[in-house]
Amino acid sequence: MLLLWTPLAQEIKKKLILQKPEVFPNPNAYLAILLFWNNSASEVYVKLKQKYANDLGIESKIFRDYSPELIPSLNTDPNCIWVMIQLPLPDPLKSRKDELCQSIIPSKDVDGLWHSPLVLPATVRGIFELRNFYQLGSLKTRKIVVIGQSKLIGEPLAIECKKQGAEVQTFDISNSPAQIANACKNAEIIFSCTGDLHFLTKEFIKTDKSQIIIDAGFWHINGKATGDVAFEEVEPYVKAITPVPGGVWPLTVASLFLNLFDVQQYQ
Predict the structure, then answer these.
(1) Rounded distance, CA 239 to CA 171, Å?
(2) Distance between CA 125 and CA 87 in Å, rounded?
(3) By CB distance 3.0 to 4.6 Å, which of 116, 175, 215, 217 could disulfide with 171?
(4) Mean of pLDDT over the chain
(5) Do 241 and 235 form a contact (C-beta atoms < 8 A)?
(6) Which of 10-24, 69-83, 245-259 has the lowest mean pLDDT?
Protein backbone atom coordinates (compact mmCIF):
# COMPACT_ATOMS: atom_id res chain seq x y z
CA MET A 1 0.00 0.00 0.00
CA LEU A 2 1.23 3.48 -0.87
CA LEU A 3 0.88 6.01 1.93
CA LEU A 4 0.12 9.10 -0.16
CA TRP A 5 -0.08 12.59 1.25
CA THR A 6 -2.65 14.09 -1.12
CA PRO A 7 -5.96 12.99 0.47
CA LEU A 8 -4.88 13.99 3.97
CA ALA A 9 -3.29 17.28 2.89
CA GLN A 10 -6.50 18.28 1.11
CA GLU A 11 -8.51 17.45 4.22
CA ILE A 12 -6.17 19.57 6.39
CA LYS A 13 -6.27 22.46 3.93
CA LYS A 14 -10.09 22.55 3.87
CA LYS A 15 -10.14 22.70 7.67
CA LEU A 16 -7.59 25.51 7.86
CA ILE A 17 -9.30 27.59 5.15
CA LEU A 18 -12.45 27.56 7.26
CA GLN A 19 -10.52 28.54 10.41
CA LYS A 20 -8.34 31.23 8.83
CA PRO A 21 -10.65 34.29 9.14
CA GLU A 22 -11.08 33.69 12.86
CA VAL A 23 -7.50 32.70 13.66
CA PHE A 24 -5.77 35.35 11.51
CA PRO A 25 -8.12 38.32 11.08
CA ASN A 26 -5.21 40.72 10.42
CA PRO A 27 -5.12 41.24 6.61
CA ASN A 28 -1.44 42.22 6.83
CA ALA A 29 -0.31 39.00 8.51
CA TYR A 30 2.57 37.25 6.74
CA LEU A 31 5.02 34.38 7.04
CA ALA A 32 8.75 35.11 6.96
CA ILE A 33 10.82 32.42 5.23
CA LEU A 34 14.58 32.90 5.55
CA LEU A 35 16.35 31.27 2.59
CA PHE A 36 19.98 32.33 2.58
CA TRP A 37 21.34 30.44 -0.45
CA ASN A 38 20.41 28.82 -3.73
CA ASN A 39 19.78 25.17 -2.91
CA SER A 40 17.55 23.26 -5.32
CA ALA A 41 15.84 21.05 -2.72
CA SER A 42 15.22 24.05 -0.45
CA GLU A 43 13.82 26.09 -3.34
CA VAL A 44 11.30 23.33 -4.12
CA TYR A 45 10.30 23.05 -0.46
CA VAL A 46 9.88 26.82 -0.08
CA LYS A 47 7.66 26.98 -3.17
CA LEU A 48 5.41 24.33 -1.61
CA LYS A 49 5.12 26.45 1.53
CA GLN A 50 4.36 29.58 -0.46
CA LYS A 51 1.66 27.84 -2.47
CA TYR A 52 0.04 26.38 0.66
CA ALA A 53 0.06 29.79 2.34
CA ASN A 54 -1.44 31.40 -0.75
CA ASP A 55 -4.21 28.77 -0.85
CA LEU A 56 -5.04 29.69 2.76
CA GLY A 57 -5.04 33.40 1.97
CA ILE A 58 -1.85 34.14 3.93
CA GLU A 59 1.01 36.17 2.45
CA SER A 60 4.54 34.77 2.53
CA LYS A 61 7.75 36.74 2.20
CA ILE A 62 11.18 35.31 1.40
CA PHE A 63 14.26 36.93 2.93
CA ARG A 64 17.46 35.94 1.13
CA ASP A 65 20.01 38.34 2.64
CA TYR A 66 21.26 37.60 6.13
CA SER A 67 21.94 40.40 8.59
CA PRO A 68 22.23 40.35 12.40
CA GLU A 69 19.20 42.63 12.64
CA LEU A 70 16.86 40.50 10.52
CA ILE A 71 15.48 38.00 13.06
CA PRO A 72 15.11 40.57 15.89
CA SER A 73 13.17 42.85 13.54
CA LEU A 74 10.86 40.00 12.50
CA ASN A 75 10.38 39.01 16.15
CA THR A 76 9.00 42.46 16.93
CA ASP A 77 6.97 42.97 13.73
CA PRO A 78 3.30 42.54 14.77
CA ASN A 79 2.35 41.52 11.21
CA CYS A 80 4.88 38.69 11.09
CA ILE A 81 3.20 35.55 12.45
CA TRP A 82 5.92 32.98 11.77
CA VAL A 83 9.69 33.10 11.27
CA MET A 84 11.17 30.05 9.61
CA ILE A 85 14.82 29.44 8.75
CA GLN A 86 15.04 27.11 5.77
CA LEU A 87 17.64 24.44 6.50
CA PRO A 88 20.29 23.48 5.60
CA LEU A 89 22.18 26.74 5.93
CA PRO A 90 25.02 27.79 3.62
CA ASP A 91 28.54 27.02 4.80
CA PRO A 92 29.30 30.46 6.30
CA LEU A 93 26.27 30.16 8.62
CA LYS A 94 26.24 26.41 9.40
CA SER A 95 28.13 26.77 12.67
CA ARG A 96 25.54 29.30 13.86
CA LYS A 97 22.45 27.16 13.15
CA ASP A 98 21.42 26.65 16.80
CA GLU A 99 22.10 30.26 17.69
CA LEU A 100 20.00 31.58 14.81
CA CYS A 101 17.12 29.15 15.29
CA GLN A 102 16.99 29.79 19.04
CA SER A 103 16.86 33.54 18.46
CA ILE A 104 13.34 33.19 17.05
CA ILE A 105 10.84 33.94 19.80
CA PRO A 106 8.69 30.95 20.88
CA SER A 107 5.43 32.41 19.57
CA LYS A 108 6.90 32.50 16.04
CA ASP A 109 8.79 29.19 16.17
CA VAL A 110 6.21 27.14 14.28
CA ASP A 111 8.77 24.47 13.34
CA GLY A 112 8.61 23.28 16.94
CA LEU A 113 12.33 22.51 16.96
CA TRP A 114 13.71 24.76 19.65
CA HIS A 115 11.17 26.17 22.05
CA SER A 116 7.60 25.11 21.75
CA PRO A 117 6.12 22.37 23.94
CA LEU A 118 2.85 23.00 22.09
CA VAL A 119 3.71 21.36 18.78
CA LEU A 120 5.79 18.56 17.32
CA PRO A 121 8.42 19.34 14.69
CA ALA A 122 6.49 19.50 11.43
CA THR A 123 7.92 16.44 9.71
CA VAL A 124 7.32 14.34 12.82
CA ARG A 125 3.78 15.63 13.08
CA GLY A 126 3.24 14.89 9.39
CA ILE A 127 4.34 11.29 9.91
CA PHE A 128 1.88 10.78 12.76
CA GLU A 129 -0.94 12.54 10.90
CA LEU A 130 -0.31 10.17 7.98
CA ARG A 131 -0.28 7.12 10.25
CA ASN A 132 -3.58 8.15 11.81
CA PHE A 133 -5.18 8.89 8.44
CA TYR A 134 -4.33 5.43 7.12
CA GLN A 135 -5.33 3.82 10.44
CA LEU A 136 -2.03 2.00 10.91
CA GLY A 137 -2.77 1.29 14.55
CA SER A 138 -1.18 1.92 17.93
CA LEU A 139 2.59 2.02 18.35
CA LYS A 140 2.38 0.38 21.76
CA THR A 141 4.87 -2.53 21.99
CA ARG A 142 5.64 -2.24 18.26
CA LYS A 143 9.27 -2.83 17.28
CA ILE A 144 10.54 0.29 15.57
CA VAL A 145 13.84 1.33 14.01
CA VAL A 146 14.67 5.01 13.48
CA ILE A 147 17.67 5.55 11.20
CA GLY A 148 19.15 9.03 11.58
CA GLN A 149 19.14 11.15 14.73
CA SER A 150 18.91 14.74 13.56
CA LYS A 151 17.16 17.32 15.75
CA LEU A 152 14.89 18.02 12.79
CA ILE A 153 13.39 14.54 12.41
CA GLY A 154 15.08 11.44 13.83
CA GLU A 155 15.62 12.44 17.45
CA PRO A 156 12.14 13.91 18.12
CA LEU A 157 10.54 11.07 16.15
CA ALA A 158 12.22 8.45 18.34
CA ILE A 159 11.18 10.32 21.49
CA GLU A 160 7.55 10.50 20.37
CA CYS A 161 7.47 6.81 19.45
CA LYS A 162 8.79 5.93 22.92
CA LYS A 163 6.13 8.14 24.50
CA GLN A 164 3.53 6.09 22.65
CA GLY A 165 4.90 2.86 24.08
CA ALA A 166 6.97 1.54 21.18
CA GLU A 167 10.18 -0.47 21.49
CA VAL A 168 12.56 1.85 19.66
CA GLN A 169 16.09 1.29 18.37
CA THR A 170 17.94 4.32 17.04
CA PHE A 171 20.87 4.42 14.64
CA ASP A 172 23.09 7.11 13.17
CA ILE A 173 26.33 7.54 11.28
CA SER A 174 28.26 5.83 14.07
CA ASN A 175 26.57 2.51 13.27
CA SER A 176 27.62 0.24 10.43
CA PRO A 177 25.20 -0.66 7.63
CA ALA A 178 25.37 -4.27 8.83
CA GLN A 179 24.22 -3.28 12.34
CA ILE A 180 21.36 -1.24 10.93
CA ALA A 181 20.31 -3.96 8.48
CA ASN A 182 20.23 -6.57 11.26
CA ALA A 183 17.90 -4.39 13.36
CA CYS A 184 15.71 -3.49 10.38
CA LYS A 185 15.07 -7.14 9.57
CA ASN A 186 13.56 -7.57 13.04
CA ALA A 187 11.48 -4.37 12.99
CA GLU A 188 7.79 -3.90 12.28
CA ILE A 189 8.18 -0.24 11.30
CA ILE A 190 11.25 1.46 9.84
CA PHE A 191 11.64 5.25 9.78
CA SER A 192 14.50 6.33 7.50
CA CYS A 193 15.69 9.88 8.14
CA THR A 194 19.31 9.69 7.03
CA GLY A 195 19.47 12.15 4.16
CA ASP A 196 21.59 9.46 2.49
CA LEU A 197 20.35 8.86 -1.04
CA HIS A 198 18.86 5.37 -1.50
CA PHE A 199 20.48 4.17 1.73
CA LEU A 200 17.75 1.65 2.52
CA THR A 201 17.75 -1.19 0.01
CA LYS A 202 16.17 -4.63 -0.20
CA GLU A 203 19.05 -5.99 1.91
CA PHE A 204 17.72 -4.07 4.93
CA ILE A 205 14.20 -5.49 5.00
CA LYS A 206 12.15 -8.66 5.28
CA THR A 207 10.50 -9.86 2.10
CA ASP A 208 7.21 -11.08 3.58
CA LYS A 209 5.22 -7.86 3.09
CA SER A 210 4.84 -7.37 6.84
CA GLN A 211 6.80 -4.14 7.36
CA ILE A 212 5.86 -0.45 7.14
CA ILE A 213 8.53 1.87 5.70
CA ILE A 214 8.38 5.63 6.24
CA ASP A 215 10.87 7.52 4.06
CA ALA A 216 11.60 10.95 5.52
CA GLY A 217 14.54 11.60 3.21
CA PHE A 218 14.40 14.15 0.43
CA TRP A 219 16.79 14.73 -2.44
CA HIS A 220 16.35 16.66 -5.65
CA ILE A 221 18.46 15.01 -8.34
CA ASN A 222 18.39 16.18 -11.97
CA GLY A 223 15.00 17.80 -11.47
CA LYS A 224 13.47 14.73 -9.81
CA ALA A 225 12.66 14.18 -6.13
CA THR A 226 13.83 10.98 -4.45
CA GLY A 227 14.56 9.80 -0.92
CA ASP A 228 16.44 7.53 1.48
CA VAL A 229 14.72 4.38 0.23
CA ALA A 230 15.51 2.61 -3.05
CA PHE A 231 11.77 2.65 -3.70
CA GLU A 232 11.42 0.44 -6.77
CA GLU A 233 13.62 -2.19 -5.16
CA VAL A 234 11.88 -2.16 -1.76
CA GLU A 235 8.19 -1.44 -2.49
CA PRO A 236 7.19 -4.91 -3.77
CA TYR A 237 8.24 -6.52 -0.48
CA VAL A 238 6.60 -4.30 2.17
CA LYS A 239 3.12 -3.88 3.62
CA ALA A 240 3.06 -0.09 3.25
CA ILE A 241 5.51 2.62 2.18
CA THR A 242 5.68 6.37 1.65
CA PRO A 243 6.93 7.28 -1.84
CA VAL A 244 9.20 10.20 -2.65
CA PRO A 245 7.80 12.37 -4.09
CA GLY A 246 4.26 12.14 -2.78
CA GLY A 247 4.78 11.00 0.80
CA VAL A 248 6.12 12.65 3.93
CA TRP A 249 7.64 15.93 2.74
CA PRO A 250 4.61 17.59 1.12
CA LEU A 251 2.66 16.61 4.25
CA THR A 252 5.33 18.35 6.31
CA VAL A 253 4.16 21.59 4.72
CA ALA A 254 0.56 20.94 5.78
CA SER A 255 1.80 20.11 9.29
CA LEU A 256 3.72 23.38 9.50
CA PHE A 257 0.46 25.20 8.96
CA LEU A 258 -1.33 23.00 11.48
CA ASN A 259 1.38 24.04 13.95
CA LEU A 260 0.97 27.69 12.98
CA PHE A 261 -2.77 27.60 13.65
CA ASP A 262 -2.35 25.64 16.89
CA VAL A 263 0.23 28.05 18.31
CA GLN A 264 -1.90 31.06 17.34
CA GLN A 265 -5.05 29.59 18.89
CA TYR A 266 -3.16 28.72 22.08
CA GLN A 267 -2.06 32.32 22.42
Answers:
(1) 22
(2) 18
(3) 175
(4) 91
(5) yes
(6) 245-259
